[in-house]
Amino acid sequence: MSSLVTRVRLKQIEQMIEKGKRLDGRGLNDYREIKVEQGLIERAEGSARVLLGKTDVLVGIKVETGTPFPDTPNEGVQTVNAELVPLASPSFEPGPPDENSIELARIVDRGIRESKAIDTGKLCIEPGKKVFVVFVDVYVLNHDGNLIDASAIAAVSALMNTKMPNYEIENGELKIKTGYTSLPMKSHPVTVTVGKIGSNLIVDPWLEEEQVMDARMSMAINDDGNICAIQKGGSGYFTPQQVIEISKLVQEKAAAIRKKLGW
Amino acid sequence: MRIMPTYFEKKQLVTPGELLAEGDYLAGENTYLEDKKIYAARIGLADVDNKKVNVVALRAFYVPKMGDIVIGTITEVGFNGWSVDIKSPYTALLRASDVLSRPFKPQNDELSQVLNAGDLIVAKIASYDRAHDPQLTVGEPGLGKITRGQIMRVTPTKIPRVIGRKGSMISTIKQETSCQIILGLNGVILVTGKTPEDEELAMMAIRKIEEESHTSGLTDRIAQLLKEEKGKREENKIE
Amino acid sequence: MNEKPEKLIDKKGFRLDGRKADELRPVKLEVGVLPNADGSAYIEHGKNKILAGVFGPKEMHPKHLSLPDRMVIRCRYHMAPFSVQERKSPAPSRREVELSKVIRESLEPSVFLELYPRTGIDVFIEVLQADGGTRCASITAASLAIADAGIPMRDLVVACAAGKVDDTVVLDLYDAEDKLGAADVPVAIMPNLNAVTLLQMDGILAPEEFENAVNMAIEGCKKIYALQKEALKNKYTITKEEAEEE
Fold first, then answer.
1. C173: which of A64, A143, C74, C177 fits an S-S bond (Cβ 3.0–4.6 Å)?
2. How many domains does one find in chain A?
3. At what angle do helices A240-261 and A147-160 cross, to 10 degrees?
4. What is the helix (H) or strand (E) element at residue B30, kind and residue range?
5. What is the CATH number that goes with domain C27-245?
6. HSE-up of B73 (CA within 13 Å, CB side)?
7. CATH no. for residue B20?
8. Which of these three, B123, B146, B169, is where a domain ends?
């Protein structure tokens, strides 16, 4: 109830956007400030926290051993989970993951998986029997809009921060040795989300804008500039021209973010 | 008769549970009495007035009081009225009969045409007690639906400071910014100006008052600040 | 991977993490860290990293969850999957359900529940990293979050544990000591009212050892309480100083 945006405010948002500006002073294509902190959860094998404006997402990585999937016996396993914890927003209820947290997890998962961010081929311990399982747990700590981009950037940052223990196989048993190796990675995808309000496109929608927008489009771009995942969300629509326009806009924004983060 | 001292300095910042006084004192706002001892119940600035120990809370939420002017948002259209969020633990109710100037006929009248979810209103608390949700009325001049302006929120305990002694603070802001300002006692404030810049100026002044409410000389500093900001704007325009 | 150490306290009286028997782990507190919550606090107690958020008072939905004559408190203690050594499933475990209840019951006596009938407050605790004593650190943070939300309270609630490792009663057990020690006694108090609102024990203690442990835990609580007050005041003192600088 407290997150209900008033009519007067919605009108103001729409009017400003028609003039090419947003309520927090940004242009239609501007991102909020992005801050990344790595390694804050020492217990986890890797971690990162991203602040996108006031949106706050923490990702923890746990690396354990397990059995591979039958169709990929020589590859490690990647699994992404997202929690929209109730303290992040009055609109999040405690309970099992709802469609929003599951969609968020799957979007982040696709971006990492399709771009082969994690080099799963290097995570095999014993073919067909034992592989490393990488758990990516997305924890939203504060919701102020655009959880997708914040979560995706945090996930990749956390993976870049991940160290796995060294090991050797002795008599068919896994023995842990001293020292750590960085998680093998092949790509560092950046996800960019664009929202639609009226006929205008806005980059990095903020919480109140998300309540006015009728649709969003998220695209993940890998290091080579190729698109590796797309998700359209919301009950509105985009024109085909807008879709192409977005794919070009996303390239530009992803490159800028990549440069800023030094990826 | 020996009066025991209080355990704090004037306007000292205290936290819940801190012992403020013992003996012949009365428990005022945001304090409580137990075993002849007076303790703070909220974080705030402690003070003693005659024999009453008070804490001016720095953080509190609004509890409805009859006669208070409040600003709220319609959250639901019901069968014979509307639910209103007045930023209080309790949801307020506005009866259809209060808004419509003629008898209310459920079959004929479409309430959402009058007021719909997301609309803002200025209203008065008509009644409230422990067992029932607060009832609102808009049947007085100056009350009703809001169509323009910007909304901001401050901690309700700061509203008297925004008003100032005999209204001096709020008059200064209204004058310098040419804005209409409605102060909801529930901490919600409506600022309506000729331009968004005027509104921003007034809102900035109010935010400053909230942050520095416990300091002195504030009215003069605010007047000064507003004059300076306006001067800067004039300069920018000429350039 | 982890071999059980022979002794948890060496001959000189130093524990495995370098502390003496009555030494507290470092504690850091911050108030008002979550923009969307009505009140919030963050605690680092040793390696524990815990966030507490409070929403309310507000009306409860569905209505039958509320009481006609007082406010209810709903509390959820939850651990992030990456907070512990072996990844934990995000679904609530039986331990989390029990801890949610005892934490709630440790906070209830501190709040003036009768003042706001038919309403409730939600207290959400998220453990981001765990290293023994999370329920105590959670209570300390949750109590600050309730004060930060402007909810009237009788007192803050602060918690600390004591226990026994090898043959010595020690203060503030961390994870290894908790797992390998002989007893763990978490205690929560309202420090100004001298009221114990949480007391549990895991393990076995002789009566004198128990008395020793409880007193030690309460001393630990008082030290942490000083930090609680400071954290709460810090949030408001900064603006006062800034103002005076002008």
1. C177
2. 1
3. 40
4. none
5. 3.30.230.70
6. 21
7. 2.40.50.100
8. B146
Distance, in angstroms, between A189 CA and closest chain C CA?
23
Q: What is the pLDDT of residue C35?
A: 94
Other C-beta atoms within 10 Å of C54: how many? 30
- B63 in a structural domain: no
Residue A145 sits at the chain C interface (C-beta within 8 Å) = no
**What is the mean predicted confidence (pLDDT) over A169-184?**
85
Domain for residue B4, yes or no?
Answer: no
B86 and B41 in a common domain: no
Tell me, what amino acid is at C117? P
- Lowest average pLDDT, out of A156-165, B201-210, B216-225, goes to B216-225
Q: Which residues from chain C sit within 8 angstroms of residue A60, using beta carbons? A: 80-83, 128
Q: Which of C1, C40, C49 sits opposite A41 (nearest CB)?
A: C49
Which of A1, A5, A6, A10 is the best residue to mutate to test the B interface, defined by the most B CB atoms within 10 Å of its own CB? A6
Which residues of C are less than 8 Å from B17 in CB distance? 110, 153-156, 190-193
For residues B75 and B48, membership in a common domain is answered with no
What is the structure's pLDDT at C13?
86
Handedness of CA A225, A231, A233, A236 (dihedral sign): positive
Q: Does A74 touch chain B (CB under 8 A)?
A: no
What pTM value is reported for the model? 0.91
Q: Where are the domains of chain C?
A: 27-245
Q: Which pair of structure tokens corresponds to residue A26? A: 């940004």
Mention every residue, 6+ apart, whose C-beta is less than 8 A from residue B56. B29, B30, B44, B45, B47, B157, B214
Predicted local confidence at residue C238, as pLDDT: 58
Tell me, yes or no, whether B175 and B210 share the same domain. Answer: yes
Cβ of C150 within 8 Å of Cβ of B42? The answer is: yes
- B96 in a domain, yes or no? yes
Contacts of A10 in chain B (CB under 8 A): 118
Distance from B112 to chain C by nearest Cα, in Å? 23
CATH code assigned at B210 = 3.30.1370.10
Note the pLDDT tens digit of each residue in C13-42: 899 999 999 999 999 999 999 999 999 999
Provide the domain limits for residue B77. 69-146
Q: How many CB atoms lie within 10 A of CB C223?
A: 14
- First and final C-alpha spacing in chain B: 71
On whether the CB atoms of residues B36 and B239 are closer than 8 A, the answer is: no
Work out how many domains chain B is built from and give that number. 3
Q: A137 to chain C nearest CA, in Å?
A: 7
Is A185 inside a domain boundary? yes
Question: Over the stretch C101-156, which tens digit does the pLDDT of each residue have?
Answer: 999 999 999 999 999 999 999 999 999 999 999 999 999 999 999 999 999 999 99
Percentage, residues of chain C above pLDDT 70? 95
Cβ pair A41:C36 closer than 8 A? no
Q: How many CB pairs under 8 A join A and B?
A: 29
Which of B16, B155, B212 has its CB closest to that of C155? Answer: B16
For the cut 90, the answer to whether the pLDDT of residue B8 exceeds it is no
ipTM of the complex: 0.90
Per residue in B66-111, pLDDT tens? 999 999 999 999 888 999 999 999 999 999 888 876 666 666 668 8
Helix axes B168-177, B196-211, angle to 10 degrees: 150
Among B residues 192-211, those touching chain C with beta carbons less than 8 Å apart: 211
